[in-house]
Fold each of these.
Amino acid sequence: MAERVFITGIGMITAIGDNVAGNLHHLRLQHSGLGYSQYIDTIYKDVLPVAEVKHASESLFPLAGIPVKEGYTRTTLLGLAAMREALQHAGITDVQSAPTGFINASTVGGMCDTEKLYFDIINPEKNGSFLQYIDTLDCADCTQRVADIVGFSEHIATISTACSSSANALMFGARMIKQGLLPRMVCGGTEALTRFTLNGFNSLKNVDKQFCRPFDQQRTGLNLGEGAAYLVLEGESFARANNSRILAELSGYCNTNEAFHPTSPSPDGDGAYEAMKMALAMSGHSLEEVSYINVHGTATLNNDVSEGKALERLFGENVPLFSSTKPFTGHTLAAAGAIEAIYSILAIQHGLIFPNLNFSERMEELNISPVTTLMEGYPVNHVISNSFGFGGNNASLVISKYEG
Amino acid sequence: MEELKKKLKEQIIEALNLQDTKPEDIDDNAALFGEGLGLDSIDSLELMVLLERQYHIKVEDPREGRKILQSVQSMAEFIQSKQPA
Amino acid sequence: MAAISPQSTFEGDIFSAPMVHTDSNLLSCIEPDYKPFIPGNSLRRMTRVLKIGLTTALKCIQDSGITTPGPIVTGTGKGSLQDTEKFIKEIAEYKETALNPTPFIQSTYNSVNGLIALQQKCTAYNNTFVHRGFSFENALLDSMMLLQEGASHTLTGAFEEITKEHFYIKSRIGFWKEQPTDSRALYTHFSPGTIAGEGATFFTLTGTPSSDSYAAITGFKMLYKPTAEKLSVALKDFTTAPDLIISGRNGDSTYEHYYETLDQCFQGIPQLPFKHLCGEYDTAGAFGLWLAGQMLKAQQIPQQWFPFSTEHLPANFNSILFYNHFYGEQHVMLKLERV
């Protein structure tokens, strides 16, 4: 029997908070992190809403716990801030105290900084300290800088499967534990807003000029966000021997590919259906036991139809309470899976169902609507968290209340 | 109008890199998407970019885009309707 | 297995194919005709590394004879550089308006995986690792775990391209030799930096050997930024007396000492370096593994590719130790055995 995998530490930074407590505070108050960018150099600054972390990169250094230095991208700094909290929360003062792996996720690496320097970098006449950013463009840079600062020397990896990246990082880490390769893994993702990505999604004509409206008939697209989140995963035997404080169990997961279209999900949500069904089967829990679904819910025309159909197909008449928390955080791409996994844990710990902000009109294609007001004192035992990405990459996680 | 349609066909072939297609292969009224030329939703975004770059016409609503991009004929008519007489 | 590389590895007999060489410090892939593999309507939008990656994957599936698609796991350090560069430039040129989405979509690191899945109608597990010299190796680890978990087979590979622009960018931080170097004489030109390369390599992995199998992977270890001692201990613990060593040696004097550690640990065992064939890139290790697989199955060494090798090479070999590192950071050792 493979080891059960427990979550023993969480850390995050998003537009609604610099740490887990800050995030919970604003979730409870129903304060959205959406607004207009202070820091991206784009003509869409005042046109397209984003959920930006409320610090200039320079002021992220203290949160990251390092002195101001060239070569540290916003992606790395956000990652470090979340990593520090996750380790502290798990009571890990030295990651070398037990063999610990690090699985990170990133979609565009340090593009947030390199895009500002790119034309200098390719210009032989320009020289200067910007050259220190050359190697920050790739996705491994942020992983290795975080690893080197906090001291990971065992297994490290970076995953990039677009919007499902950090859900896949969590899955990969959990599988390594179950195979007995390492007893403890830190998994998640980091994402900084970039002009590159904003223009990318805008060229696909799926960015909303208003604050995004997941599962609403009038929705026209997503809003991007930034942030980072990491979860400490421990195998059961290690967690018990270590006397770790167990927050929740990662009881199921599944990754499937839709093989439908390079960027769009299938209209009936085949991939989403399969991912949720298989993840739940792995957890050993029934459809009726699912208390809440933190949906991918990007508010693009296609995602919400596809995901909604998948929910109706899987759960029939009894679709559980569900909401998208993207109107709080924006779509944080590589970080989204880990951020929403932490929200799922918060839902379990505090008996909360978070509202799907900005919803007013049910979609004509669906018979279901998301939760629109904060529900407190609601028993939450099993949560499904969905992350679906480009290339048809679908990942679902099942997070369960720890009951011994 | 004929001139515009001919030019449009050449531009479509270039923009979408339709290597084995010649302008005369494209019927004015043939469907660009699905059966006809076999284009997909990414091509439709690229054709909207073509309209913006070559004719300075911006199509905001993807639903409206679908109507305009039905055929070379519909595209040409739309371009003409937007140009000062 | 299948490989598109700077050598004639995609078609024909590698044991007679002449060696391709360059003195430009950049080895580019020999591109095949893609049309037999990819429908014209799909091909028209695809940039180079997408075509190279997808075609190699499809050829690998053909080579394996497996018809039911399984999990697809890949590694790439840089993904589609052409598309990334193009999108950055178009953002500037068109001042963030009227942008084609294609370069953005294709710059996404998992776009090749998505295309393989789409073309194969494959709905199984799909993952992409993007971690420099650990990109392919993590894909390999993931695949081996999938086999352990019960998958009957996986499609596992890597793809990388080098563009002129990226070659220049990396030259600014000393990745390449400053003097034009004949690739055939790479190992005698000790100076900082090496030569650039690119390629795509795919493998079908199964948990059970067959008469068609190329090799068995019987040992696998990754080490991140090890000290010389740690590397030495790990190498000695890893295996004893392989018949042959395939090493990632690349003439870069800055990181040569790691290969010297390898020499010390395995004195007297013949070594074949492979970077003069494919150049250095994040996922060059996949090419080295492919070469080892070819040799183990054929029990033959493509002698024409190793004209400088004066050492006595064994006529038969049952085990190969593969060791490679990427700029001293990601170190990989693999043990391969004849099936």
Note: Chain A has a mean pLDDT of 96.
Amino acid sequence: MSSDNTIAIVDYNMGNLRSVEKAFQKIGASVVITNDHKIIENADKIVLPGVGAFREGMENLKQLGLIELLNKEVIQNRKIFLGICLGMQLLGKKSYEIEETPGLNWVEGDVEKFKIKNLKVPHVGWNNIFFTKKSSLFQNIPDQIDFYFVHSYYFESGTEYTTSLTNYGVDFASSVNKDNIYGCQFHPEKSQRFGLEILRNFMNLTNDN
Amino acid sequence: MLKHRLIPCVLLKDWQLVKSIQFDSFRTIGHPTTTVRVYNARNIDELIVLDIDASLQGEEINTEIISDMANECFMPLTIGGGINSIDAIYKVLDAGADKISINSIAIENQEFIREAANIFGSQCIICSIDAKKNGNQYRVYNKKKGVLDVDPLTLAKEYESKGAGEILLTSVNNEGTQNGYDLELLRLFKEKLQIPIIINGGMGRPDHGVDAIKNGADALAAAYIFHFSQYTPAQIKEILNQANIPVRMDLFEMS
């Protein structure tokens, strides 16, 4: 099914992908930033990073013909997938950012805005994650380590796919996992040693995990 | 719990990293990539680099050095200095920066903030404000234009409404003094903005950071203390932690 060991970082014009590329290169992964359907089809794994607005993210995926392609590769062909920040939020059923917008609907959960009195939005900086479930991405990572976050919306917690929680006024899902699909709200590529460890764990995942 | 960030804020000049003293003279810190490698090994929270050749001499921002630094930097990297177009932001981000800091262009044209935030997201846009005490009031200072008849807090609120993601607030009077942050300036800003305030200028000892957080700063930027004092980042954080300020503790030193 997958023909090489490349990790495809999906370029859909939603923010800076260079940091993600550099972090994967640092750990020795073969990685390419692309929106070329052929390259994504041939890649071993897919990463969807991104910062910015949910609706624009979905719109851009659609315009590049990537929604069908991703559904085929990730849902049908069960290619191992990681969504980072906005890329994790897009996994959800819908978001209330600006207006109600449907997401990829791969992982149960809605995306909501932080509305907490006296707390600054975006939630920016280092915050700790509490493991709620075993995840292959957390190998060699101690519980309650800080990771770097920057976001104004969050993925609701309480679904069976939540693998860690983080608190910022509310408990939200800071990572999710369903079958071959992984998501993290924080930025592993900007979270120093343990962030790189998460990417390494992702790099080493196989479909047998 | 969200932690207060401790951020080295250094200047890029003649292919070296330097720190400035009251916006006037400079002390050399070291080679950019070597320095970033050390910051990374010391598990620093975040890094701000301002290219002063670009901002003051009008030279093209040095994307080659930025790219070299970004290769070693697995923490958020903010680049500023001389950024005055959307194209320049694309270039800097493509070199590996995560956020950009703007100053002069924001003073000249606030719509630029809106335009940049719409394209890159607010989280990417730090607006830098230099404030100077003039008599008994604070005024915005610009390196090219000098003291402007503009109130820093008013300007910060305008920046916020245009889509700025964070404010980097530097006290011109305290910068390079090691006498502590400008707490009077901070108190004017306390609880007035929805976006985070990174205070800069004057940190000479860890307890200066404690004072700044207690007076409303969300994050601490500094240069001197990291390079010319006996304190390591871990020791600074230990002192902040003892003062019940949540910080990201360096419990797992990088080998």
Note: Chain A touches chain B at residues 15-16, 18-19, 22-23, 26, 51-53, 120-128, 142, 145-146, 148, 150-151, 167-168, 187, 189-196 (CB under 8 Å).
